[in-house]
């Protein structure tokens, strides 16, 4: 590895938005033949830093060098001209177009007559795919290929434009474990060909597996860069949050009792009338955590919404404690004993311009002890806020602070305090640790397990396989709106779950809690 001249170097890079310092004098360098990890929680500033490098944002201060030469990157076109390619977390592909048409879009080869030369494009793409071991079908439509294949197309798109360094922004977020392994193989093929990779992630295990060095950013500031041989998940976690954290979920075996939630043959369609749930059946018992795994977009969100009254079921039934609650209103379901940590806390969990105290009683604000008839009991609300702020370690100057001014982890703690405070029969935790630091993750996991051990039924839906495997007593896997597999939590492996998640394997899960048949 040539450590003399970086392929890319950013010096004292600063990016200021109104009222926010997103990047504060960060120094970063990437060299030929390496994978450089860029680690930080959501909001740490890592994606902003790479967006500056790619020309999506102008820097407030700082300099960028490409192979030792200072450059002024004013837009993505200029970044591409300097050999910088970026694959965004959300793919930028045109579904009805073919693989070849997407790759050449904006850089189309022409025949002597000036028409599109699709044969040459396919030939060039084939040569590129062979060079980097990125197998694709140039004539396949994007809408017909897998997510992993679409990611290959995005990478080839950057290579086709002459990328000499590749930025991957949270590239594993929508991949199965098998697809992640394939991506890592592609990354190594690229670095062996001399193309360095900047790998943006918050997943410690993946960084340890694929990176040569890791640069850590916390709240817009660079904490340091460490060689992977000197790193460990614990070291990286403490750099990321500034203190030691426990990374393993600590729990005893569950003791399932009576059925709390019974979902029977639920079918549902989206706003266009297309099916999103196809005969979903399962049960969750008191004293157990059932996890639902799956690649995002396979019906998990719609399932939560059907159970919680936010999406109509076309047919089938949802029962809570033996009572049918199918298509009841969200308010009826809350008062009936279901508490929900929503997957999008800003749109479904909080009113950002309300105080911590007011957010802490949302959904119960018109019920005793917080209200009687139309009169609110402000003393009861204040006392309750003081209690949950202390119990859930919400870091705030006072209970009247606006929720929008809290960190993501503290916002999530307000939601969890409120939902657990309802003393529900069923707690639904959807993406419970999305966008929070590893310290808050440790706290949230502990609280979820406490609910199970207190005899509550818990349903966890997460895109993080480690989270599902760590928390769950049983794991269900969703694929194309169906539950295709059930595995006892202690027996689950990433490889087996990945096969179910990709639709390559299925069993017939029992409709009640118990052993897999």
Description of the molecule:
- The chain is globular.
- Helix 14 (408-421) packs parallel to helix 15 (438-453).
- The protein has helices spanning 46-53, 76-81, 99-104, 118-131, 147-160, 177-192, 204-210, 233-241, 300-307, 330-336, 345-349, 356-359, 378-391, 408-421, 438-453, 465-471, 494-501, and strands spanning 8-17, 20-30, 35-39, 61-66, 69-71, 84-87, 165-169, 197-201, 213-218, 221-227, 259-269, 275-285, 289-293, 315-320, 323-324, 338-341, 371-372, 375-376, 426-430, 457-461, 474-479, 482-488.
- The strands form 5 sheets. The chain has a 6-stranded mixed beta sheet with strand order 6-7-8-3-9-10, sandwiched between helices. A 6-stranded mixed beta sheet has the order 16-19-20-13-21-22, sandwiched between helices. It has a 4-stranded antiparallel beta sheet with strand order 2-1-4-5, covered by helices on one side.
- The chain is built from 17 helices and 22 strands.
- Helix content is 32%, strand content 25%.
- It has 2 domains: 8-241, Rossmann fold (3-Layer(aba) Sandwich), CATH 3.40.50.300; 257-337 and 460-517, 3-Layer(aba) Sandwich (Rossmann fold), CATH 3.40.50.300.
- It is α/β, with parallel strands linked by helices.
């Amino acid at each position: 590895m040539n450590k003399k001249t970086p392929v890319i170097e950013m010096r004292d890079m600063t990016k200021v938005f109104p009222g926010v310092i997103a990047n504060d004098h960060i120094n970063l360098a990437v060299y030929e033949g390496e994978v450089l990890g860029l680690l930080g929680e959501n909001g740490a500033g890592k994606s902003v830093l790479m967006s500056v490098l790619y020309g999506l944002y102008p820097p407030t201060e700082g300099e960028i060098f490409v192979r030792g030469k200072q450059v002024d990157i004013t837009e993505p076109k200029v970044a591409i001209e300097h050999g910088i390619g970026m694959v965004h977390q959300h793919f930028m592909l045109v579904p009805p177009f073919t693989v070849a048409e997407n790759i050449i879009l904006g850089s189309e080869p022409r025949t002597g007559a000036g028409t599109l030369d699709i044969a040459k494009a396919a030939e060039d793409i084939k040569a590129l795919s062979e060079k980097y071991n990125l197998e694709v079908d140039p004539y396949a439509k994007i809408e017909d290929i897998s997510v992993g294949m679409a990611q290959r197309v995005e990478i080839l798109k950057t290579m086709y434009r002459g990328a000499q360094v590749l930025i991957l922004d949270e590239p594993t977020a929508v991949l199965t474990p098998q697809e992640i392994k394939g991506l890592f193989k592609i990354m190594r093929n690229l670095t062996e060909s001399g193309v360095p990779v900047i790998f943006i992630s918050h997943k410690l295990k993946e960084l340890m597996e694929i990176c040569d060095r890791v640069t850590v950013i916390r709240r817009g500031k660079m904490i340091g860069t460490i060689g992977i041989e000197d790193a460990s998940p614990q070291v990286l976690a403490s750099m990321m949050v500034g203190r030691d954290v426990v990374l393993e979920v600590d729990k005893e075996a569950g003791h399932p009792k009576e059925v709390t939630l019974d979902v029977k043959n639920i079918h549902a369609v989206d706003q266009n009338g297309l099916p999103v749930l196809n005969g979903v059946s399962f049960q969750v018992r008191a004293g157990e955590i059932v996890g639902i795994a799956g690649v995002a977009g396979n019906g998990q969100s719609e399932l939560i919404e059907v159970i919680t009254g936010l999406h109509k079921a076309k047919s089938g039934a949802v029962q809570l404690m033996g009572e049918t609650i199918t298509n009841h209103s969200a308010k009826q379901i809350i008062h009936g004993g279901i508490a929900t940590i929503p997957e999008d806390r800003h749109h479904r969990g909080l009113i950002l311009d309300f105080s911590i105290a007011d957010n802490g009683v949302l959904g119960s604000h018109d019920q005793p002890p917080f209200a009687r008839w139309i009169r609110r009991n402000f003393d009861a609300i204040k006392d309750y806020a003081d209690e949950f702020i202390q119990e859930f370690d919400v870091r705030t100057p006072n209970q009247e602070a606006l929720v929008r001014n809290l960190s993501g982890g503290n916002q999530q703690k307000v939601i969890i305090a409120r939902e657990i405070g309802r003393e529900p029969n069923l707690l639904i935790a959807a993406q419970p640790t999305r966008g929070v630091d590893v310290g808050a993750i440790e706290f949230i996991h502990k609280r979820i397990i406490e609910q199970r051990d207190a005899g509550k039924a818990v349903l966890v839906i997460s895109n993080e396989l480690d989270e599902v495997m760590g928390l769950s007593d049983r794991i269900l896997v969703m694929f194309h709106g169906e539950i295709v597999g059930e595995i006892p939590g202690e027996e689950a492996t990433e490889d087996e779950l990945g096969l179910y998640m990709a639709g390559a394997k299925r069993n017939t899960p029992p409709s009640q809690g118990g052993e897999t048949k």
